[in-house]
Amino acid sequence: MSAAEPPARPDAPPPSRIFTLEIDGRPTLAFEATGLPEANEICSDDSFRSDLHALTSNGVAICAEGATLAPRPAAQDEIAAFRRAVGMAPPSDEPTTVFLIKVDGVMVVAVDPR
Questions:
Q1: Which of 72, 83, 73 minimizes the C-alpha distance to 110?
Q2: Of 6, 9, 23, 105, whose CB count within 10 A is highest?
Q3: Burial per residue of 46-62, b for 16 or more beta-carbon CB atoms within 10 angstroms, e otherwise
Q4: In this structure, are residues 30 and 81 in contact, taking their beta carbons and an 8 Å threshold?
């Protein structure tokens, strides 16, 4: 800890980081988590996977049965896209996910950092 950093409160939640979920190697959505263990937990949640199975892009399922879901730290352009979309979205207490691809039937708020 440096003199410029305030001491961490023991009861404070860890800071969130932005992660990208790759589905079969394709960067698909960005989301916040406190670290890679939590990101993995989110991506292995059955209802999350079920929701992803129901979505399509250009008529093709974005997450087929048996697809590999792999979270990783987001790249700078993915972080920028996430922050822009969050800034444009209405306030919510729910976790925010930002699709990095076109999703059929979903209104696009932002898909690139511009």
A1: 83
A2: 23
A3: eebeeebeebebeeeeb
A4: yes
Position 86 scores a pLDDT of 87
55 found inside a domain: yes
Contact between 96 and 88 under an 8 Å Cβ cutoff? The reply is no
Could you tell me the CA-to-CA distances from 47 to 16, 30, 43, 50, 83 in Å, in that order?
Answer: 22, 17, 10, 5, 25
Number of compact structural domains in the chain = 1
pLDDT digits (tens, 9 = 90+) for 50-76: 989 999 999 999 999 889 999 999 999
Q: The whole model's pTM is what?
A: 0.79
* Three-state secondary structure of 46-100: HHHHHHHHCCEECCEECCCCCCCEEEEECCHHHHHHHHHHHHHCCCCCCCCEEEC
What would the two tokens of residue 88 be?
Answer: 């444009």
What residue numbers bound the domain in which 64 lies?
17-99
Tell whether 47 is covered by a domain. yes
Looking at the domain assignment, is residue 11 inside a domain? no
Residue 106 and residue 99 in contact, taking contact as beta carbons nearer than 8 Å: yes
